[in-house]
Amino acid sequence: TALLRRYLNYGLDSKQSLRRADLQTAIMKDADIIFLDGYANLLHMIEQVMMLTVLLGYQFSAPLLFGKPVSLRPVLPVVIFP
To answer: Would you say which domain of life the source belongs to (predicted)?
Structure first.
């Protein structure tokens, strides 16, 4: 993490004055924030993209399965307003 890189760039005096527990606590708090803001949002975004993919797949395959002509009109709202 950026916090650890910053710590490694400290001088020897600064490193000795910093308690190890303070650094560990800061890293643990950052880990929660990184997970909640990054990884969890990434999973939610993947879920939404998969739902749109299934919806578009159905919109394109349903006319073919039911023997009707393919039209782009039902697909436009999905593309314009995801």
So the answer is: Eukaryota
Task: List average pLDDT for each run of 10 residues in the chain, which is 82 residues long.
Answer: 70 78 78 78 91 88 88 81 70
Q: Give the domain extent around 48.
A: 2-80
**Cβ-contact 82, 52 below 8 angstroms:** yes
Q: Which residue has the tokens 């997970």?
A: 35
Maximum distance among all Cα pairs of the chain, rounded to whole angstroms: 78
* Domains contained in the chain, number: 1
Q: What is the value of pTM for the model shown?
A: 0.53
- The residue whose two tokens read 């710590």 is 7
Distance CA 64, CA 58 (A): 10
Residue 54, pLDDT score: 92
Instruction: Please state, in angstroms and rounded to a whole number, the distance separating the CA atoms of residues 6 and 58.
Output: 50
